[in-house]
Design a protein that fits this description.
The chain is elongated, with a radius of gyration of 21 Å. Helix content is 51%, strand content 13%. The protein folds into two domains: 13-172, Rossmann fold (3-Layer(aba) Sandwich); 180-273, ProC C-terminal domain-like (ProC C-terminal domain-like fold, Orthogonal Bundle), CATH 1.10.3730.10. Helix 4 packs parallel to helix 5 (110-117). By secondary structure, the protein is α/β, with parallel strands linked by helices.
Amino acid sequence: MEVLPISIDAYRLGFIGAGKMAESIAKGIVQSGLLPPSRISTAVHSNPSRRIAFESFGVRVLPKNDNVVEESDVVILSVKPQVVKNVVLKLRPLLSGKKLLVSVAAGVKLKDLQDWAGHNRFVRVMPNTPAAVGEAASVMSLGEGAIKEDGQLVAKLFGSVGKIWEAEEKYFDAITGLSGSGPAYIFLAIEALADGGVAAGLPRELAMGLASQTVLGAASMVTKTGKHPGQLKDDVTSPGGTTIAGIHELEKGGLRGMFMNAVVAAAKRGQELSPK
């Protein structure tokens, strides 16, 4: 069967699963003007606060997942990895090849998704929690039946909540270890920097504000200047100065190795948790 591109101007988007990630993506899409909320739907089964969250920015909340699939051209599966199989199998009779299916479930492979759905027009995406503030780092991989236009459409959707890259699926465990789990590593770093400020005599509120803005500013310098972070570090590290004294302590503590080990450990754990 020939797969036709989904109309870029008139498609309808549905979310299976109404959690925080789905909310973040839907809100970003609406705020960017990419789609009006009237063309986005989801279903809420038990938690009234989830209904309120989606209706607060105009998204339609339908009675059942079946209704969401029936009314959508693009369906984003945003449910916990351990329930994806049951959800997809229940929806399978409605999942025709005319619908583009997108999964953001961590660790669930395209081959399994395609088998459960009965067709292969799938795109797998690994976003991360900064989607909630429009700063996600997302990666997508196209399934066997997804066409170039499908990838372009998904790139626009997830580009509305941050940046998105395309990569082969074999890299997804490593991506999970880096960008999927990475925000938590940086939260720890911000907290530690703030604690250091308090230890040096700063009020807690000021220390936390300075720590978080410093991390934000440093990340922005890397992305906006295009310079290697090592070069940017060298630029602010004068001979015998305060910065090199601090860096010396970080190097003695093995900071680089700890970050590297964290990414590798999380990637390994993601591999272990993937359905076999």
